[in-house]
Automatic annotation (TrEMBL):
<feature type="repeat" description="TPR">
    <location>
        <begin position="78"/>
        <end position="111"/>
    </location>
</feature>
<feature type="coiled-coil region">
    <location>
        <begin position="320"/>
        <end position="358"/>
    </location>
</feature>
<keyword id="KW-0732">Signal</keyword>
<dbReference type="Pfam" id="PF13424">
    <property type="entry name" value="TPR_12"/>
</dbReference>
<keyword id="KW-0418">Kinase</keyword>
<dbReference type="InterPro" id="IPR005467">
    <property type="entry name" value="His_kinase_dom"/>
</dbReference>
<dbReference type="Pfam" id="PF02518">
    <property type="entry name" value="HATPase_c"/>
</dbReference>
<feature type="signal peptide">
    <location>
        <begin position="1"/>
        <end position="19"/>
    </location>
</feature>
<dbReference type="InterPro" id="IPR019734">
    <property type="entry name" value="TPR_rpt"/>
</dbReference>
<feature type="domain" description="Histidine kinase">
    <location>
        <begin position="412"/>
        <end position="599"/>
    </location>
</feature>
<dbReference type="InterPro" id="IPR011712">
    <property type="entry name" value="Sig_transdc_His_kin_sub3_dim/P"/>
</dbReference>
<dbReference type="InterPro" id="IPR011990">
    <property type="entry name" value="TPR-like_helical_dom_sf"/>
</dbReference>
<keyword id="KW-0808">Transferase</keyword>
<dbReference type="InterPro" id="IPR036890">
    <property type="entry name" value="HATPase_C_sf"/>
</dbReference>
<keyword id="KW-0547">Nucleotide-binding</keyword>
<keyword id="KW-0067">ATP-binding</keyword>
<dbReference type="InterPro" id="IPR003594">
    <property type="entry name" value="HATPase_dom"/>
</dbReference>
């Protein structure tokens, strides 16, 4: 059974969550500017995990800061951008997070706010580290460290050393990681930040344990435990007790470990903290198995699984609640659009009535002009109705597509993941009874668990492809590779050299990728083509996507009669990107699709 050790804190605490970050001023709310008050509300929403609310309020803070007169409120503006970067990073949208951090960094450098610039640079380093680009992360940390030395800022020096320790720990250079954690510990102590002292001690203890230096690891963890008790931090105390028990287990002392684990379990239940309860049960199961108490190990493992399922279900409930909020918001937006449309119609009717009255008054001398005005109003009225119908059609296509996606996701979870887990549960129940078939049941259960993991990965990939984490160009290369691997169709990809260093907002990349994916899938299913070309390049302020196949073609007039969601979804997504879509095809002459979107 694998060890269950907890990082006591995040390896890097995002600014806005601790005193060393880019927080709003702690002054009384009635003395703060509107931008600073909005910033405080946004940070509180972020701390609670209410990301949608945080984004809305932090954007409001940024608007208020920009509108401050006679000069923009630079400090609160860069703080708002920095915290927007934190939110985007926590949501996994690294390109968007980097954009906000870079805006905050540019403002800090322009205002010569060296301390803020160093802290934002540290944040960018953490973003690159989470992105798997540790070398770039290290460069940002070292740059921030040089600034911290110049400013003689021990808290910032501590953050830099702690983050460098994380990089070297990931590289499994435990000696260097240990040195940097020790330096971070010294600077945190100098800055009198007990919570961060406990974090550095926890990181140091984990590296010491990986070096099999168990006495040093136990000593570091006990120091962190003392700080948790001094600061009355129950969560920190429970996590540290679990880590201490885990270290004793790995050093071969299960009897010494159990009292600490039982204390961790008691505190975690009292909080309550489901993730800590699950970790304590898991470590207790490991200890009981190590001591040969297999019945107790089984009971603890059963409790661990139940608690973990409860935690996962709670998280799933939270995610479903967020989806419901987004659905309700979209529904409200459609209702508001309908209301605005009706108001425009009423205003137009009033305008027409006024025109009719004026025409009656001037009938004798100006009947020709009045009729011309009436014709103009009628034309405007028809255009308004047409634009509204097109907007409603786009919204309905997106709504139908989202509903279809929800149904598909529910079906995948129920038919795939749900059925696999039901069978796994049956095998585990049979394992409880023992018997000669137990080894076969265990093997079958493990096989189904592996299949379930693959199924979950497939569902996750369908929601947001993993390759988009590395940008649109990488995702298109992966799409081309998958198509070419089939051996039936050859997809020729041409990417403009001017795009090799380009980056786009995550929402833009996802929308454009889905459009390309939908068109390519349509060509694969219906065109009977042997070759497809896909070209992406920049032309002035526009990004152009050109796709063509050598298939059987079709009559494009059929697109207006199609009842399927494919082309409607494509048209709706291109419309939301403010782009233009052109489709050319004739029977026997293949199909060409051209999309132009503003960057």
């Amino acid at each position: 059974m694998p060890s269950i050790a907890l990082r006591v804190l995040l390896l890097f605490v995002p600014f806005g969550l601790n005193a060393t970050g880019l927080r709003a001023s702690p002054a009384p709310a009635d003395t703060l500017s509107p931008a600073a008050r909005a910033l405080q509300r946004g940070i509180r929403s972020y701390q609670r995990g209410q990301f949608d609310s945080a984004i809305t309020v932090l954007n409001q803070s940024a608007r208020l800061a920009r509108a401050t007169r006679p000069h923009p409120d630079t400090i609160n503006l860069l703080r708002a951008y920095n915290n927007l970067g934190n939110v985007a990073g926590d949501q996994g949208n690294n390109p968007r997070a980097l954009g906000f951090y870079q805006q905050a960094l540019a403002l800090a450098e322009a205002a010569r706010e060296r301390r803020f610039a160093a802290k934002v640079g540290n944040n960018i380093g953490t973003l690159f580290q989470n992105w798997g680009r540790s070398e770039e992360a290290l460069r940002y940390y070292e740059q921030a460290e040089r600034e911290a030395h110049a400013l003689a800022d021990p808290a910032l020096l501590a953050d830099c050393n702690n983050n460098k320790g994380v990089v070297y720990e990931q590289w499994k250079q435990y000696g260097r990681a240990r040195t940097y954690y020790q330096q971070a510990l010294r600077f945190y102590e100098q800055a009198r930040q007990p919570h961060n002292v406990a974090m550095a001690l926890s990181n140091l203890a984990i590296v010491q344990k990986r070096q099999n230096d168990f006495p040093a690891s136990i000593a570091s963890t006990r120091r962190a435990l003392a700080i948790a008790r001094q600061t009355s931090d129950a969560w920190l105390e429970a996590a540290t007790l679990n880590n201490l028990g885990n270290t004793y287990l790995e050093s071969g002392q299960p009897a010494v470990a159990e009292p600490f684990l039982q204390q961790a379990l008691t505190i975690a239940r009292r909080l309550p903290a489901q993730e800590l309860v699950a970790a304590a049960y898991g470590t207790l199961a490991q200890g009981a198995a190590q001591a040969g108490r297999y019945r107790a190990a089984y009971d603890y493992q059963k409790a661990f699984i139940a608690q973990k399922d409860s935690f996962v279900n709670a998280e799933r409930h939270r995610q479903l609640s967020e989806l419901q909020v987004k659905y309700d918001t979209q529904k409200k937006e459609r209702e508001n659009e309908q209301l605005r449309y009706e108001n425009r119609l009423r205003a137009l009717a009033q305008q027409k009535a006024e025109q009719d009255r004026q025409r009656t008054l001037n009938l004798a001398g100006g009947s020709g002009l009045a009729l011309l005005l009436l014709g103009g109003v009628g034309g405007h009225y028809r255009r308004l109705r047409r634009h509204h119908r097109e907007a409603l059609a786009r919204n309905q296509a997106l709504f139908d597509g989202e509903q279809q996606e929800r149904v598909r996701l529910a079906r995948d979870l129920h038919d795939g993941v749900g059925q696999h887990l039901a069978v796994v549960r049956m095998y585990v129940s049979e394992l409880q009874e023992g018997g000669p078939d137990a080894p076969a049941h265990a093997a079958q259960a493990l096989t189904l668990v592996d299949q379930t993991i693959k199924e979950v990965r497939s569902v996750s990939h369908n929601l947001i492809p993993d390759e988009l984490n590395f940008g649109l160009l990488r995702a298109l290369r992966e799409l081309s590779h998958r198509v070419n691997q089939t051996g039936t169709v050859q997809l020729h990809l041409h990417l403009g050299p001017e795009l090799q260093q380009a980056s786009f907002p995550r929402t833009f990349e996802l929308a454009l990728y889905r459009v390309v994916q939908e068109v390519v899938n349509g060509m694969l299913r219906h065109a009977d083509a042997s070759e497809i070309s896909l070209r992406l390049y920049r032309s002035g302020p526009q990004l152009l996507v050109e796709m063509a196949d050598n298939g059987k073609g079709f009559d494009t007039r059929l697109l207006t009669q199609s009842k399927g969601l494919g082309w409607k979804n494509i048209q709706a997504r291109v419309g939301l990107l403010n782009g233009q879509l052109r489709v050319q095809s004739r029977p026997g002459q293949g199909t060409q699709v051209r999309i132009a979107v503003p960057e």
